[in-house]
Amino acid sequence: MAYDGLSEFVRELERRGELVRVRAAVGSHLELAAIADRAVKSKGKALLFENVVDVRGVRSPFPLLINAYASRRRMSLALSAEDFEEQAERIRSIVAATGAHGGSRGMTQMLGQLAAHLPDLMHVPPRRDGAGACQEVVQRGDEVDLDRLPIITAWPSDGGPFLTLPVVITRDPERGDRNLGMYRMQKLDRRTTAMHWQVHKTGRRHYESAKKRGERLPVSVVLGGDPALAYAATAPLPDGLDELLLAGFLRKKAVRLVKCLTNDLEVPADADFVLEGYVDPSEELVDEGPFGDHTGYYTPIEKFPRFHVTALTHRRDAIYPTTIVGPPPMEDQWLGKATERLFLPLLQLQLPEVVDMNLPVEGAFHNLCIVSIKKGFPFHGRKIAHSIWGAGQMMFTKAIVVVDHDVDVQDVREVAWKILANVDPKRDLSVTEGPSDHLCHSGDVQHFGGKIVIDGTRKWPEEGYTRVWPSPCVADAATTAAVERRWAELGIDLPEGDSAHASSSARESDEGTKSTLRRWMDAAKEMTR
């Protein structure tokens, strides 16, 4: 379903037992974030704080929603699905329907032809409307007061309160292409914020283009609305492809747009809040940070542009959305996992030998990628790693682990076992250099550092391996079936969650393990080289 604002999404979460309303007064400075951190690490529910108080003791007129994406189920609901794998399957069907070819050009072709190939999605492209709920209340000029929003300070050394779920809308001053990005914004005063436009981001490119032209860059910031909007703003789409197209695809309904009141941009009509304004590239940059980031560490003070708010509009029933990032696991892990699943079919469009991919939350999305492949030639694992580094934002990946197709990359225990058993560091580790994420602190210089490939695939004679590669130990099917039939009468009670340490016969009762064993047996048959 498509959601008409955060209020409708909140009602859906509440209907499904996925929401807790917090009516007690809670401070926006550190206290609220500490509560949310405890809730997300305990796999708790979404939280709607109805009485948020700032450091002055002033209560915000707006409720605050946090932890809305902090589970697979809620992330799926945010993407208008019972499970976000449904959306991944829709993308796979489009790949087949369009017959698009590999590379970013093929991805753009495929996504751009949604309406032509799927009649039920003919209204996916965004369309302009006359009015929207996002402009029910309008404040301009001196009326703008960001202090009324319940903007939180999450960590003790943060440089101030930060907006952490803003959908920042700009247009390329040269080409006119629209971009939706999610860039944190530190509140500086009642009418200005910093704009964290990192060097590799599209918003930064628009800013640099405006600077060369000697122009102000119009900027509008959306808070709330259909949660698909926030997700689309984080999605690694090819440059120039409108994120509103992806949002419309996910919600199976076009995003209605209204024109802003003080600049020429358009914003989603069902947004909860809109901050209209501009960035002036001729102004001096401002200090932004420190900020407790998704890496789990503070990023330092750096210089970024200042965003001037010329109008603040909102719905009458507006809800302020926010999140906190920090030491994993955090709420953003499910935004990352959704991207992993939804964009896997697009990666496979370019690299059809890829079977599956896992971006573990402990790797903060860009530090580790585990990928399984159907190996087709010697040193195929190295080729895949370099291809992944060439796939858009995957260029930031610090470590890539490549395993065979029969390894479940979502099972990190299995991956660790296979890697530790099969890798010869002298032969299978490769270190190179390349661009690193703006937030990565490990390199000697910013934006550049070392990268590693761990090739955990079975080695072929052509790769210098002249011995016989061993097969994994697997119980025979007849014995396994017999033990399964007798298990109840044996009276052996295994501790819950401890089946991974039990015998292979006992583990057969777990469907996931059965699948794993079948893959191993299939793989053993193939190892005749």
Tell me briefly what this model is.
The chain is an alpha+beta fold and 529 residues long. It folds into three domains: 6-321, Pnp Oxidase, Chain A (Roll); 351-463, 3-Layer(aba) Sandwich (UbiD C-terminal domain-like); 477-526, no CATH class. The strands form eight sheets. Strands 7, 9, 10, 12, 13, 16 and 21 form a seven-stranded antiparallel beta sheet that branches. A five-stranded mixed beta sheet has the order 23-24-25-27-26, sandwiched between helices.
Summarize the SSE layout with pairings.
Layout: H1 6-15, E1 19-22, E2 26-27, H2 31-41, E3 46-49, E4 52-53, E5 64-66, H3 72-78, H4 85-98, H5 103-112, H6 114-117, E6 127-128, E7 137-140, E8 162-163, E9 167-171, E10 178-181, E11 185-186, E12 192-194, H7 202-213, E13 217-223, H8 227-234, H9 243-251, E14 256-259, E15 266-268, E16 273-279, E17 286-288, E18 291-292, E19 298-299, E20 302-304, E21 306-314, E22 320-321, H10 332-350, E23 354-358, E24 368-373, H11 380-389, E25 399-404, H12 412-422, H13 425-428, E26 429-435, E27 448-455, H14 477-490, H15 504-507, H16 511-526
Parallel strand pairs: 1-3, 2-4, 5-22, 6-14, 24-25, 25-27
Antiparallel strand pairs: 3-5, 7-21, 8-11, 9-10, 9-13, 12-21, 13-16, 14-15, 16-21, 17-20, 18-19, 23-24, 26-27
Helix pairs in contact: 4-10, 8-9
